[in-house]
Design a protein that fits this description.
It is built from 26 helices and 17 strands. It is an alpha/beta fold and 637 residues long. It has three domains: 204 residues, Thiamin diphosphate (ThDP)-binding fold, Pyr/PP domains (Rossmann fold, 3-Layer(aba) Sandwich); 154 residues, Rossmann fold (3-Layer(aba) Sandwich), CATH 3.40.50; 128 residues, 3-Layer(aba) Sandwich (Rossmann fold). Bound molecules: thiamine diphosphate (TPP).
Length: 637
């Protein structure tokens, strides 16, 4: 079915194809992406948009000798296809299969791992500096989207790179989209470059200059510096990237292979930091994705001829949907509630709030640190901001939480979606560190609701509190429990959901349901097991834990979808030690000292030993009835 794809085993093979053949290859890659991603799920629209760009990069540069860094890395599928990994696409994002992001262990062509946005220019500058110190001779190229370019780190790196003057090529892939429509001054600035006629003239002139570069033919220009100066004189004064010390090339049509290659060859001949501005269309070539690039940014498996309807709800609702609905309902009666997202309005469920209360909604772009301090500012003027950020991305804003929100004890509610194992996006995206990076911060309250009904209560409780509160909840569907009217939870109190005298399981959030099922099974084996939902990870319900410690014959078992180090089990151990219950036997189930790779969430949880069976097994061992299998032996290494 495919003519050219099987021919391309490595980037060098691209150099054997002429322009027409390359265009045919581009069409084949698009069909291949839709065919494979519709089966596995994945980042479709971003990859459809960079097909020609990736081909051009691999034609002009010499990977892996030349080093290419993909910002976020969600658009690296075409790069993977062209670097010998097309045959692995049936395993994309599955446990043990091809990752959806660049991975060092996968290929020498993946030179730097990414997943979180806006890191590529910093990494590329570091690689370029190392190259210079080692007196090596190769190119370093960062490919960054216009959304990621708006992140603070990208600006910090541009600022530094311009100052250093190091040879470095930054390719700005401008598709006018982040996940949804891009926001901010930079986006408006790029829009002006795209549409202003004087920039179109500039594009023509640059082509004229590039034609004169020796590698391309035409009149020989002896000094590359002269080219740079010539290009610079064409740049409109005040151009942002030029002012930062970059030579700006573009804008160039990112779907025109010939123009792209010419511009990249031109960039190779210039010295210092170069920014190549490339215009692409997200979702290019697959109508559904072109029309709804935000929906097809990242999709689950779908039927390519009959794709799913965006926004359609199923039962049970997802935690995100319940968050979205609850916030809308609470905001109706409380006009002090404002909502903030860092470029994830859809993913966090804040899109509904944005529609209903546009003046109280803020999309700050991919700028989690700014989002948090911005919220602190709003809170100082008596607003009650809800900062909805995935657990993994809030890692970025640790200092802002400590310094700007909690130290001033400001009423900011952090809604941490995707807490725990997220599944197919893998190690850069699992939200398994949040309890550890939050629970030691003074003034901060941390809640982990066990189901979607408790999520509603936790949100109301958090928004009724005049201080900072974090609520963590998992990815995916709720348990299908009845949704009551939201109520305030008794402050700092856990709930004993089941009594028992042999062992008490203290389970966090998503693990409570598993613990209850395990306790039921154990009852049939004559083991009497209590289950406690602490509800509050901080403050801990001291009394309840003390009572459980005294009354459980074989001790306590903690279970959490989080790292063991610094997590809830650690909090329980700390409390027991400080309160004189240090001799109580405690066993902890959670994630060991390692990163968790990609795969379906249930597969990963089983691999980590976070299942009903493993909880049963752990309890039997605690009662001296089972073979002792430590979490290391059970695969969680
Ligand atoms: C720190 C961080 N915040 C949020 C995200 C989620 N995210 C992944 S891709 C993306 C949009 C990136 O937009 P852009 O750089 O323009 O790339 P495009 O998808 O348009 O090609 C976002 C917000 C992330 N990966 N990292």
């Amino acid at each position: 079915m495919y003519k050219w794809l099987p021919v391309i085993k490595e980037p060098a093979d691209l150099k054997k194809l002429n322009t027409k053949e390359l265009q045919e290859l581009a069409c084949e890659i698009r069909s291949f992406l839709v065919e494979k991603v519709s089966k596995t799920g994945g980042h479709l629209a971003p990859n459809l948009g960079v097909v020609e760009l990736t081909i051009a990069i691999h034609r002009v540069f010499n990977s892996p000798r030349d080093q290419i860094i993909w910002d976020v890395g969600h658009q690296s599928y075409v790069h993977k296809i062209l670097t010998g990994r097309a045959g692995l696409f049936d395993t994309l994002r599955q446990f043990g299969g091809l990752s959806g992001f660049p991975k060092l262990k996968e290929s020498p062509h993946d030179v730097f791992q990414t997943g979180h946005s806006s890191t590529s220019i910093s990494a590329a500058l570091g690689l370029a500096q190392a190259r210079d110190l080692l007196q090596e001779d190769h190119f370093v190229v960062a490919v960054i989207g216009d959304g990621a370019m708006g992140g603070g780190m990208a600006f910090e790196a541009l600022n530094h790179a311009g100052d250093m003057g190091t040879d470095l090529i930054v390719i700005l892939n401008d598709n006018e989209m982040s996940i949804s429509q891009n926001v901010g001054g930079l986006a408006a600035y790029l829009e002006r470059i795209r549409t202003d006629p004087k920039y179109s003239r500039l594009k023509e002139d640059i082509e004229e200059i590039l034609r004169k570069i020796p590698a391309i033919g035409g009149k020989v220009i002896k000094s590359v510096e002269r080219v740079k100066d010539a290009v610079k004189t064409l740049i409109v004064p005040g151009m942002l990237f030029e002012e930062l010390g970059f030579t700006y090339l573009g804008p160039v049509d990112g779907h025109n292979l010939q123009k792209l290659q010419k511009t990249l060859i031109g960039a190779k001949h210039l010295k210092g930091p170069i920014l190549v501005h490339v215009l692409t269309k997200k979702g290019k070539g697959y109508d559904f994705a072109e029309l709804q690039p935000d929906f097809y940014h990242g999709v689950g498996p779908f039927d390519p001829l009959n794709p799913p309807e965006p926004g359609k709800r199923n039962f049970p609702p997802s935690y995100t949907e319940v968050f979205s609905d609850t916030l809308l309902a609470l905001a109706k009666d409380n006009e002090k509630i404002v909502a903030i997202t860092a470029a994830m309005a859809d993913g966090t469920g804040l899109d509904a709030f944005a529609q209903q209360y546009p003046a109280r909604f803020f999309d700050v772009g991919i700028a989690e640190q700014h989002a948090v301090t911005f919220a602190a500012g709003l809170a100082r003027k008596n607003f009650h901001p809800v900062v909805a950020i995935y657990s993994t991305f809030l890692q970025r804003a640790y200092d802002q939480i400590v310094h700007d929100v909690c130290m001033q004890n400001l009423p900011v509610l952090f809604a941490l979606d995707r807490a725990g194992i997220v599944g197919e996006d893998g190690e850069t995206h699992h939200g398994v560190f949040d309890l550890a990076y939050l629970r030691h911060i003074p003034n901060l309250t941390v809640l982990a609701p066990r189901d979607e009904n408790m999520l509603q209560h936790a949100l109301l409780t958090g928004l009724s509190h005049e201080g900072p509160v974090a609520v963590r909840y998992p990815r995916g569907k709720g348990l299908g429990v009845k949704l009551e009217r939201p109520r305030r939870l008794p402050w700092g109190q856990g709930e004993e959901l089941r009594s028992g005298k042999d062992i008490t399981i203290l389970a966090v959030g998503s693990m409570v349901d598993l613990a209850l099922k395990a306790a039921e099974q154990l009852e049939k084996q004559n083991l009497s097991v209590a289950v406690i939902d602490p509800v509050f990870i901080k403050p801990l319900d001291d009394k309840l834990i003390s009572r459980a410690a005294l009354n459980s014959r074989f001790g306590l078992l903690t279970v959490e979808e989080h790292t063991l180090a610094g997590g809830f089990g650690s909090a329980v151990l700390e409390y027991l030690e400080m309160s004189g219950h240090g001799d109580v036997s405690v066993r902890r189930l959670g994630i060991g000292d390692h990163y968790v790779e990609h795969g379906a969430r249930d597969v990963l949880l089983a691999h980590l030993g976070l299942t009903v069976e493993q909880i049963v097994q752990a309890c039997l061992e605690m009662a001296g009835r089972g073979k002792v299998v430590s979490w290391r032996q059970s695969g969680n290494e």
